[in-house]
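User: Study the shape:
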Amino acid sequence: MAEKPQPVLVLYCQVCGLPAEYCEFGPEFDKCKPWLIQNAPDLYPDLLKAANAKEADKVADQLQSAGISSVDAAAAAGGSSEAKQEEVKRLPGGKIKKKEKQEVVIEKVVRNKRKCITTVKGLELFGVKLSDASKKLGKKFATGASVVKGPNDKEQIDVQGDISYDVVEFITETWPNDFLPK
């Protein structure tokens, strides 16, 4: 004889009321996370890893505020003393200051579903005059090109049209010596 099917036991979230499998699609997933970590860790293993990583970061911050780096702590615990200590500049609020990389960024921005603007950022870091570059780009591709201020108050070149593939070749041919490491 065939066995009777057993009823399925569903675990409902105490915060949002949805089944625990569907909490991530609910409106209050951030509020549900602590409850899910405690009551359903097998459903969301990434949350458990993230919680453990946050605890490790808190411990590292406490050690650093006490003047002990995690490398020093590992060496004191019998770890390798050859581990390299990395200098990191921390700003108020715990933010880490990054060095500005010298790179040229080319982006294609789509507007009105059909029109494109190609944005070229970072040419000034290599000593290229943006006004001259915009004139050359405009002539080469027979489009409008202008120097504008970007979202972070840095100047960039906006070129009308989708020329993102051709502009790379044009820049490297026009200014070949400016992009070589010195």
